[in-house]
From TrEMBL:
Pfam families listed in its UniProt record: Trp_syntA
Subunit and interaction comment: Tetramer of two alpha and two beta chains.
Protein's UniProt name: tryptophan synthase
EC assignment: 4.2.1.20
Family per record: Belongs to the TrpA family.
UniProt keyword Amino-acid biosynthesis, yes or no: yes
GO function terms (MF aspect): tryptophan synthase activity
Length: 178
């Protein structure tokens, strides 16, 4: 599955264009529309999709994503449902990589091993976890490797060159620039 991510970036590079990565919140505007949205994003040319896991206090996100999380949570969207929605989209033909994007507390509460296993079965390719530094993600990164998924480290414009170099050494698909 991490291979699907690498293939998407390689395809865009071969076509001499940027990789088109899009974000949507699972369960917004309703859970029943999420698989359709994923399929339409693919049809529209998206190379990789970030599927946001609704969280009750998404402070690192702007007002639009905060509202999408609020609405998704009002529909009972939880991490298990998000995994099922990816599975549904895969069953309906979704081919592009799907990355779960969220806060570590949700992943920890669900259970790291259970998450990696269920996500592998559903067709999730990797994870972007804004509040889990790579240095603290050793066991989670090992689970990702075990189940063929990718843990995507984050950097910011102020990240030191030395840290970027360290993160480049552990990244198995790409580094997310905030």
């Amino acid at each position: 599955m991490a291979q699907r991510i690498s293939n998407a970036f390689a395809k865009a590079a071969q076509e001499e264009r940027p990789t088109f990565v899009a974000y949507t919140t699972a369960g917004f505007p309703s859970p029943s529309q999420t698989a359709d949205i994923l399929l339409e994003l693919e049809k529209g040319g998206v190379d990789v999709v970030e599927l946001g896991i609704p969280f009750s206090d998404p402070q690192a996100d702007g007002p639009a994503i905060q509202e999408a999380h609020r609405v998704a949570l009002s529909h009972g969207t939880d991490i298990g449902m998000c995994v099922a929605l990816v599975s549904e989209a895969r069953a309906r033909g979704l081919q592009i990589p799907v990355l779960l994007m969220g806060y570590y507390n949700s992943f920890l509460h669900y259970g790291e091993r259970r998450l990696a296993k269920n996500c592998a079965h559903a067709g999730v390719d990797g994870y972007i976890i804004g509040d889990l530094p790579p240095e603290e993600a050793v066991s989670f990164r090992a689970l990702c490797a075990e189940f063929g998924q990718s843990y995507i480290p984050l950097i910011t414009p102020s990240t030191s060159k030395a840290r970027i170099k360290r993160l480049a050494n552990i990244a198995d698909s790409f580094i997310y620039v905030v």
